[in-house]
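SAMPLE LOG
Freezer: B-3
Tube label: C17
Construct: single chain, 307 aa
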Amino acid sequence: MSFDQIRLDKHEGIALLTLYRPDRMNAFTGEMMLEIIAALDDCDADDAVRAVIFTGHGDKAYCAGADLGGGAATFDYDKRSDKLAMLPDGMPASPVAEDGTIDWSHPLIRDGGGRVSMRIFEAKKPVLGAINGAAVGIGATMTLPMDARLASDTARYGFVFARRGIVPEAASSWFLPRLVGIANAVDLCYSGRLISAAEAKEKGLVQSVHAPGELIDAAIAKAREMTADSAPVSVALTRHMLWRMLGAPHPMSAHRWDSRVIFSRGRSPDAAEGVTSFLEKRAPNFTASVANDYPSFAEFEDAPPYS
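STRUCTURE (predicted):
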């Protein structure tokens, strides 16, 4: 699979997804959005991939935010030719009717950064960020649904939306307070100030800070630590359970999911192998496939609640 604005390299179970717009500090576009989504689809379908690591090309930027080349119309989506080109045939070119009413179901309403965040949220493989430079706007918010964020000591984070006259996007109003707490979230978003990698670590936004030349190796080591000895389907299910339970109203929701999912996994060959390999003091050989054996969440969601 070939791409124009990203690169996807797979090696020994790790997929390295590099944002690649060298002349624009890897700034985000609609095309990049579609390519990221396609790359994650490809990785989910490839059982050889155990984890995905995002990084940016070069040593200056992970992603400098939305491409501002459109000038004042950058965030006025129904005036941008690149956004209009993505509309299905026959779709009105604007969500705003002549009488001023807005069709909120129109595709141009949907935030492109949010589409990336939701695709990362739905990923069946662990997703890590190796933040190698400036991570501003969508460059910051797309990292929030990732399972771990490692930063270069030259990295800078900025939730600059209010400074551009807009608001945080990419579902960051859900993710950011859960990562750094509401007090830190409002500080970062109201002020729009840039923070260093060291401050990002202090606030819990990144887990570790590394010298630039050591960042990718550290991210690969972390990805292997997360996945090397674990059943791929179990990791995928655990990822979805933990993220979803962040918004659960009561621990009973978790109890319902735990009960149904562990019953399902307990009947799998992986569960037998996990116990047998432990008793025999050998490395496990898990055979269930994320691409082919991942259960439907609908069967758990539709089950009646416990009393």
